[in-house]
Design a protein that fits this description.
The structure is a homodimer. By secondary structure, the first copy, chain A, is of the alpha+beta class. Chain A contains nine helices and eleven strands. The structure holds a DNA duplex.
Chain lengths: ~230, ~230
DNA sequence: CGCGGCGTTGATCTCTGTCAATACTTGTGG
DNA sequence: CCACAAGTATTGACAGAGATCAACGCCGCG
């Protein structure tokens, strides 16, 4: 782990608030590992001994049903941590994880973390904040699936990717469209069509490059009732 | 708070694992309050100073969009705690809460809890476990909405209400059908139809009383791929 | 060049939401 | 006690969103 990596770790809400030496003792001893695209990091139901911070790349969390269908419940990027919760859940991962690009991860040992929490109560508050943050994003995801159309969910996804929340911009899709589709709770075909239907709102696509004429227009489209899209 | 209430509090994963005196100091000083059906407990965006344990009744958590649509993200009952996460999330509730029946709640002060966590690190682990548990149930909810049909979600809901996971049983629906519908991510009309379509699987309904011939049949229906319901 | 992975497009079908009409239940006031 | 109103659940007709199945285009790669 070089200083660039360390900087990333310290930028997370979890490791950014704790004293430097505590963070070092948690993460320093563990080697950073690289994973190829497509590597399974852990599987749902597996004993959970540790959690991760992403130093580079993208990771997806998903659930698999008995018949093989898959639901993506989160996609994380550099600077984000995941699977913290598993440590406290009877020690089993409730989801599976896979590297969707080639990836570098720092692994934090769960038992060590629990010991540190006992010695260092502020650490617990940081963990709770981090866990609460994940909770909130899941709630938002549920809200989205339940009351937005596929087009609106996609528009929201693009808005969150955009650097500013007004004016025009050009963004690169961070990972495969099939994964974006799954993340947004739809099929790849539907994503394709949804993208096409956003054209009148100033969204044009070429490969993985998306140009947005006016981000604010998209924001207003997302906030509109699913039904009154006449005006657009 | 009588001894029956106290027993309920101690039955929660959160308050059950901590030393008795700590639990008492957290909860004992706060008066138990009663709320009528329909009472708003707090609203999304409001400053969050405390969280709750349900001593009696049912509470729903939901999100409201600018245009008034509502998505239920959880329904809790006696012995469950809710809104713990808000305490650690910059102090604002990310959801709204309402009593769906007449309800009695114990309120726990957030600032007090934070202080206790600093003194009592084991408390932090209990909080983390509780929070992780909520996280897991949200993940499961997302999975359900994303890859089960309305009928399957309903079947799953009934199965979770049933006392055993095989054989026959009779259960009472715990709250209004409109709320069940919203909790399951569908409209009341769809719930009605989904119930009707479960009849061939041995589910019959009268008012709020549901009779199930064979719970295991429902379980297998939920686990089947959404499409191959031919056999049923 | 041919092959395989990924994405798009088209035709069709199914599910669920919407709108409207109709019981049924409960509570209220005459 | 009945009439009436309001809230809740069911049912029907219809429309729209999204899934499915299939075909095709595009691109990178051996």
């Amino acid at each position: 782990m070089d200083s660039r990596d360390w900087q990333i770790v310290r930028s997370t809400p979890l490791f950014g608030t704790m004293p430097q030496d505590v963070a070092l003792s948690l993460i320093g001893s563990q080697p950073v590992r690289s994973y190829e695209k497509g590597t399974t990091l852990f599987q749902q139901g597996e004993p959970a001994s540790s959690f991760f911070v992403i130093l580079d790349g993208w990771v997806k969390l998903f659930r698999i049903t008995p018949d093989g269908n898959e639901a993506v419940v989160g996609v994380f990027r550099r600077g984000e941590s995941f699977a913290e919760a598993a440590i406290f859940l009877g020690g089993r991962y409730p989801v599976s994880a896979e590297a969707v690009t080639s990836t570098r991860l720092a692994r934090i040992d769960g038992e060590l973390l629990r010991r540190r929490i006992r010695e260092q109560p502020d650490l617990a508050l940081a963990m709770l904040a981090s866990s609460s943050h994940h909770l909130k994003s899941l709630v938002e995801q549920i809200e989205q699936i339940k009351l937005l159309t596929a087009q609106q969910r996609l528009a929201d996804f693009l808005v969150n990717l955009a650097p500013a929340n007004e004016g025009s911009c050009v963004i690169e899709l961070p990972y495969e469209k099939a994964l974006i589709a799954s993340r947004l709770g739809m099929k790849p075909e539907s994503l394709s069509r949804a993208l096409a239907k956003l054209r009148p709102l100033g969204v044009s696509v070429d490969r993985e490059t998306v140009s947005i004429v006016d981000v604010d227009l998209l924001v207003r489209f997302v906030e509109a009732s699913p039904r009154d899209d006449e005006g657009f």
